[in-house]
Structures are given as structure tokens and as C-alpha cells.
């Protein structure tokens, strides 16, 4: 009997010294089998395996290609970090900043460091955000490892399955949190929205991407993330002034440099958050090249309006007096007029090309961007009932454009797959 008690004490003592393995096993203080991307011990017991080390720097069987990781070193050899002392590093922030958009595969700088830091800090205590971050990394690693090949190949990787599992858990956890939305739940929803947008863009599901954009912007508007007018001269402070600015994040993604604006056009399908059109230079129709020649500054002008919109939103967030707010309303009208003029010019350009074929996908993405800017601006400083109707109308248009783009992207991928022997370029080349 005494011997049995001693054996149990020795067993407990050993269990408290677990220093390796996944986060879940370390918290449970049991030996982990350290299988990647998630350990068998967690899987067999029906538990969620939260990966290895920090919520972002987990290990998978698909390591990041150093050529695409911006020089970030592998996690191999790093000392394990206990959950109670996890610290977000600059490398973590830089990596998530890269993973927000496929554009970074072409060394494009997003300028979303602050957004990445905010997401990672929240992921330490918010399970839905943590699952979303893990999903984004796994899916991005799968893309960088397998390339932009047929979906059947990408879907066979452990990273892909793990990414979808984590995405599903993030969606489920977020839905539960939003059953009784408070400040923390709303913050979680908007930060998750940032990652969901990146995930759907990565999977080229632009209709789902648009849904996340619409729902996130609707949350910001309904819960008044910035000061707003309730009457002609009555300015009300923001109801939730600590909410993440999802609109700023989205504009940064779309406004970052796009290589389809610089001839010759590249042949990738990343669209709104990537640097290429959908047709290679050798396949590109004459009408598409003519449109680029006639209107080389269409994207440049839209990006300029986007930069002015970001400045405007920054002023709205800080506004305190009615006088300043009224001047900002005039600035808002001017920006909306600029967007309307841009759209008119685009239609005139397309009439000049007289092309019987559908417009280039790159132009459809510009329409997508244009509608986002319009929705963001319409909601600024305004809380009228009439506005809700207009926002729903523009959101429906955005959803329609996104659906059309998604269908054409899928058709292109299918066509490229059947003609793979003709030398089309991969998105990763």
C-alpha cells in the first residue's frame, strides 16, 4: 500500500515537469507524442490540439519556405514557451502581416503591422481568434508548399485539413460569443473578420470574402465605432471607441500595389488581394490590352481616393466638435463625388474599347474596391434610417460583383488545369 502511494507521488511529480509538446498537453501536464500538425493524444481523446509554442508559431509537417518567409527562421530548435509567459515577437507580427494577403508573395508591403499585433495579442486569450490565426497560417503554408495547383492536390496536405478544422472552430466559437454581444465579443468578431477575409481570399472564395466584409462593416456601423451625427448639429461620441477599424484594414489590403496595373500583366488569380490579372501576356485579349493602354491610371486614381479615405477616417475617429465634423461631412461628399467620377470614367473607357467580351477580371476587382470605398464612406458620420437602405443596396451590388469574380476565377483555374502543358505561369513563380 505504502509502495503504491509512493509510486503515485512519483508519477505526479514527473507529470508536472512537462516542457515539450503541444500547448494542450503542457496545460494538462502530460507527455505529448508531438505529432504534427496536431498530436495523436489530443485527437484520440477528442480534445482540441492548440499546436506548439505561441498560438501563431505552431509547427506543421509543411514548413514555411524560407524564400517566402521574409528571412524568418524556422521554429526548430527554439526553446518551448510556457503558456503563462507567451510573448508576441516582431517576427510573429511580420509573419502575420505577410499572411494577410497573397500580394506579399511578390514582396508587396501591406503596412498592417499594427493590425497584426492587435490580432496576435488578442489570440493569446481569445480562442476563436487563435483558431482563425492557426487556420490562416496552415492554409498559407499549404499554398507556399504546393503552389497554386489544382485544388485536389492542395486539399490532400495535412496543412489544408488542419486549416479547415481550425477555421470551423473559429466560426463556431465566434457565433457562440456573439449570442450576447458586448465590447469584447464585438472586438473578437471584427478581429476574426480580418482573418476570415484573408482566409477566403487565400481560397479564392470571393463571395464568402464579400460576406465577411459586409458583415464586419455592418457591425462597425450598427455599434457606432466612430463619432456620428444623430441630427443636423448633434454629434454623438462613438459607442464602442475601442473597436478595431476593420474598414481601414480592408482598404489597406486593396490599396497595396497590384502588379496587374504594371504591364506586362502577370498570370495569377489572386485578384483583389494579389498582384495579377487572370490571363497571361500570351493569352491576353487585344481588348484587355487596349483598356490598359487607354486607361493606365484607373487603378492609380482609385488608390489615391483610397489614401484620402484613410486620412478622412482618421479625422473622423478623433473628431470632437460639431464644427469640425461638419467640415468633414463636406470632405465626405467630395470623396463620394470622386468615386462617382471614377466610375463614370471607367464606363467611358470601356465604351471606347468596344469589346464584345467580358471586362478583364482586373477591372472587376477594381469595381469591387470601388464599392467597398463607397460603403465605408456612406456609413461615416451618418446614422440615418435612409442610409440603411442605401447601404443594403450597395452591399448587394458588392456581393454580386464578388460572386461573378469567383465564378470566373474558378473557370480560369479549371481551364488552366486542362492546359497545364502549355506553359502557363503558376501564381508562385
Task: Summarize the topology.
Blueprint lengths: L1 H14 L7 H6 L11 H5 L45 H10 L13 H11 L3 H20 L4 H4 L3 H20 L5 H20 L3 H17 L5 E4 L2 E3 L9 H10 L30 H9 L3 H21 L3 H32 L7 H19 L1 E2 L2 H34 L11
Parallel strand pairs: 1-3
Antiparallel strand pairs: 1-2
Helix pairs in contact: 4-5, 5-6, 6-8, 6-9, 8-9, 9-10, 10-16, 11-13, 11-15, 12-14, 13-14, 13-15, 14-15, 15-16
Characterization of this structure:
Keywords: DNA-binding, Metal-binding, Nucleus, Transcription, Transcription regulation, Zinc. One of its GO terms (molecular function) is DNA binding. It holds the Pfam family Zn_clus. It comes from Talaromyces proteolyticus. It is a single chain. By secondary structure, the chain is an all-alpha fold. The protein has 2 domains: 148 residues, no CATH class; 207 residues. Helices cover 59% and strands 2% of the residues. It has 16 helices and 3 strands. A hairpin with a 2-residue loop joins strand 1 and strand 2. The C terminus is likely disordered.
Give a quick rundown of the structure.
Helix content is 59%, strand content 2%. The chain is an all-alpha fold. GO terms for molecular function: DNA binding; DNA-binding transcription factor activity, RNA polymerase II-specific; zinc ion binding.
Total number of distinct structural domains = 2
Average pLDDT rating: 76
Sheet/helix structural class: mainly alpha
Helix and strand string, N-terminal first? HHHHHHHHHHEEHHHHHEH
Q: Which percent bin holds the helix content?
A: 55-70%
Ranges with pLDDT <50 over ≥5 residues?
Answer: 12-18, 58-85, 260-289, 420-429
Radius of gyration: 24 Å
Q: Order of strands side by side in the largest beta sheet? A: 2-1-3
Counting DSSP E segments of at least 2 residues, the number of strands comes to 3
Helix tally equals: 16
Strand residue percentage: under 5%
- Give a short account of the largest sheet: 3 strands, mixed
* Morphology call: globular
Kindly report how far apart the N and C termini lie.
68 Å
